[in-house]
Amino acid sequence: MQTHGVFKGIANNMHKYGHFMSLRVVCPNCKSTGVIAHNNEVSEDMDGLFLIDLYCHCHNPDCYASFVVQAGHGLQSATTTKATATGSQAAQLKIRLQKYLPAEGETIDPALAATRPNAAKVQNCITALDNYGQGANVLNAHVQQRLESFLDDMNVAAAVKEIDSVINDAPPSCTNIKTIAGTLAGATDRYLNAASSALDELDQGITDYDAGDMERPSFEALLDRIAGDLTSSIAGVTGLVSNEVQKVEEMYKIHKQMARSFSVQALIQDDCVRPYLVQLAGPQLSQVLVDDFNVSDLIEQA
Ligand SMILES: [Zn+2]
Predict the structure, then answer these.
(1) Which residues have CB less than 5 Å away from ligand 1 (the ion)?
(2) What residues does the DUF7217 domain cover (predicted)?
(3) 169-194: per-residue pLDDT in tens?
(4) How many C-beta atoms surround the C-beta of residue 72 within 10 A?
(5) How far, in Å, is the centroid of ligand 1 from the Cα of 23?
(6) Considering only CA atoms, which of 73, 30, 28 is closest in space to residue 49?
(7) Dihedral over Cα of 267, 270, 273, 276: its sign
(8) Ligand 1 centroid vs 271 CA: distance in angstroms?
(9) Which one of 2, 67, 93, 288 counts the least CB within 10 Å of its CB?
(10) Quick one: 20 exposed, middle or buried, by C-beta within 10 A (0-12, 13-18, 19+)?
(11) How much distance in Å is there from the Cα of 65 to the middle of ligand 1?
(12) What is the 66 CA–ligand 1 centroid distance (Å)?
């Protein structure tokens, strides 16, 4: 039985405290109260997955059913934590940089302007921070969505892997599966780590500049460099995300084609269905029959 919501809480607590012996659950047979007798963590060696079987007894004397409830929390990715942390750091740094820009409607006299860092450079860095933050949100949404479909994706990828291996007469390879796991498995981490260092450096640079420990030209050079680093980091992230979306789509497409071919193959082998299939095939299916099953002679006869 798949469980969500309420059991998620139970499972998290069980994870924390070991086990509860008297937690009540609803008996699926008679709907009266049952208790958890013992539990077995089935995801012991699987990172990011927590799954536990709860062995339960019904307390209703007319029922006494035994049943197993499976509880757990879903998969999670460390990438989300990194993207969120760097995204909020970028937002804070944006605010710190804004103080160097004239407030709306403010006219600054040239003497004051000369003491501030170049407004265009400040603005350029703010824009880079902004774009980085948006990119981090895109990555988070993508990872979340991929986590939700991870087990389906892996099922399809595993099937495609076997099919590839048969078609190419080669041993099954994990290459496609690694590509599909992509961002979930930390493919963007190097970009996030680079961004994190750049953000830390900017943070320190603002502090040093404000304290008079960094000269204006050095600070302006820092702004330029950090803007460049953040821009290339987030370009790397979004590149990987869109590549991955495309790969997943391709994989499902292959899988669908295979499934279609397999079902057509099964039907072709059925002597009762076969004549109708050949007779009624539209252009698209005729193409599959000719290309994949070499039945052009039958189509001509029909
Ligand atoms: Zn019962």
Answers:
(1) 27, 29-30, 58, 60, 63, 65
(2) 62-290
(3) 888 888 888 888 889 888 999 999 99
(4) 21
(5) 15
(6) 73
(7) positive
(8) 50
(9) 2
(10) middle
(11) 5
(12) 8
